[in-house]
Fold:
Amino acid sequence: MARLPPPPARQVLGDPRLLLAFGFGSGLAPWAPGTFGTAVAVPLYLLIAPLPLAAYLALAALVILAGPYLCGHAARRLGVHDHPGIVWDEIAGFLVTMAAAPAGWPWVVAGFLLFRLFDIWKPWPIHLADRYVQGGFGIMLDDLIAGAYAWLALQALQRLVPWYA
Structure:
């Protein structure tokens, strides 16, 4: 499949819903917009990580619940299901990955790399969700599953190297 060019910046910046779906403009990156979108999630994570776990999960849930609406709107506006520039799903997936993660930059980097690995690799059933579930929910679902896989891997890593947590 040919790589889709990003839409005009004016279009994204002029519509608040597109601006959010495009990760505050990070999805306009000409290459690897998903990685840039995940990078935008890092400061958001650092902002909410010190909160009690219940508050963290509530805020992550708000990001997740807004996702189908924002991603669906962007897909309809662009006329493309899951345009690569739509990165709100990466932001949500990274927040899933980092739930209850140990504090410290090594864990942020590990979570980032694990999430990107599962999001790009798309092992079962991620590839099925990516391929067969449509609409805003479908755009979100594969990244939420990738986030869950990365969360499991990060939790396992924490148990393997507990002195570093």
Notes: The chain has a mean pLDDT of 94. Residues 51 and 136 are 29 Å apart (CA to CA). The chain has eight helices and no strands. The first helix runs from residue 9 to 13.
